[in-house]
Write a structure and sequence with these properties.
The protein is an alpha+beta fold. Helix content is about 45%, strand content about 15%. It contains 15 helices and ten strands. The strands form two sheets. It has a five-stranded antiparallel beta sheet. A five-stranded mixed beta sheet has the order 8-7-6-9-10, sandwiched between helices. The longest helix has about 40 residues. It is elongated and about 115 Å long. The protein starts with a helix and ends in a 12-residue tail after the last helix.
Length: about 450
Amino acid sequence: MKGGVWRVAMLGLAVAAATLVFLGVEITQLAAEDRTAFTRGLTICGIGLLAVWFVFSRLSRHFGDLERLADRLSGGRSRIDLEPWAGGSGGEVGRLAAAASGLTRGGEQIVADGPLANGPLGHGPLGGGRMDRAVRAALVLTDDPLLIIDELGRVERLNPAAARLLEVEEGADIGKTLLRDDLARAIERARGGGTPVSAVLRRTEEGELSARLVDLGLNSGVMLSFPARGMANGAGLTAKRALTLRPAQPAAPLGDDEPLAALPFVALWVATAGVEPDGGPVIAVGTVRLAGSRIFPTVSLALLIDPIDPVPEEATARHGIGTAMVAGERPFAAVWPAIQDALHNCIAVGIGIEQALAALARSAALAGVADPALPQGLDLGVLAAALDPALAGASPDRLAAAFGLSRHPRNGPQGEALAVAELAAALFTRLTERGVLTQGQARALVAGRVVAGASGQAS
C-alpha cells in the first residue's frame, strides 16, 4: 500500500525536518550572543521538529493500517479476518474494515442506505448503497490485482491492477482470459471449505497466475486476488509448468433412500463432432452443480475440446460449435481431469443423459483413460414424460416451455448447462409436489415409463 502517496508524504516531511535543522544551525550562529532570541529560535525549531515527528507517526500508523487491511482483503493470511478493526480502530480505515468484514464473510447482510436489491453485486443481497461503496473502496485500497466475478463468469468489479494484469474490463467474460476448468475447480474448493483458497490458474494464452479465491455466497460471485508477493516478475508465473492433479477420492454411495432435496447433482451438456448425436468425439462439455433444486451457477465448467479433425456441418448445425471455435483448444486427455472433478460424487442429469455419458466414455477410451469412473445418470426427458406423457421425446425448448422456463439463446457450453440445471430444478420441484421425494422413488417412476426417441443431450 505504501506507494506514490506514501513516498510524496515522506519526502515532504524529510524536507521540512531538514529545513528546521538548517534554521536551528543558522540561529545558533546568528543569535549566539542574544540569549533571548537564541532560546526563542531553538524553541520554535524544537516545536517544529516535534510536529514533524507527530505527523510522521500518524502517517506511519495510517499507512500501516492500510497495508494490513490490503493484506487481509487480498487473502494474504489463512483467512480473511478483519475483526481487530471492529473493536477499536476508528477513522476511515476502521469503518472500511468493518464494512469489508461483512463482505468477506460472504452472506451476512449489511445495512444499506436503501432497500437491498435481489441479485449479485450491485443488484442483490450484497449490492447497493453502503456495501457497493465498500466493495469499490476495497478494490481501490489494494495494490494487488483484485476482481469480483459473478455466477456466470463475468467481471463485476476490478481494480486497475487487475485490468492491467488480465487485460479485461467490467462485463468481460473471464473465460477468455483464464481457463474455466482451473477456475471452476478452485471455486468449488473455496465453496466447499468456506475459507479463501490458493490456486494456480492458467491463462488462455501461455502462462500461469498464482491466485487466492473466496466465495462470496450463493449467487453473489467470487472474489479473486493475485498477490504480488511470491509471484515471478511481480505479475504471475510466466513459465510453463505441469500441474499435479489430485486424483478423485472414492465417491460416497448415493442410496435410493436419499432425499432428492439433499442429493448432489450435476447438470451435464455434451456436444460431439459426429454426424449423429450419439457418435463422434466430444468437442464441448458444460456442467453446473445443484443440490436438489438449488442451483450453484458459480460451480460450473465450460470446455471446448479440439478433436483434431474438422467438425462436420451437420454437427455444427445441431449444437452451433464449429471447427473454428475448437481449433487450438486442448485435447480431451488434457481436460479429462477437470471433467472428472466436475462429475465426482454427483448424479448426472440431462436430456438423454445416457448418450452424454456414453460419449464421454468413448472419448475417454480414445484418450487412453482405463477407468473413467462416470457417475450415475438421471434422464430429465424421461422424468418429464413420466409426469406428462405428452412430453415424450420433447425437445429442450418444448420442455422449457412446459415448465414455465425461458429458453436462453444458445451461448456455448455454460449457457446450455445452465438451461439444463434450470430444467432439473423445475422438475425436482414438480416431483416433490407429486410426492416423489427420494432417488429411489424417482428411478421407480423412470422405470415405469420408458420413452422411445428422447432428444439426445449429447448434441
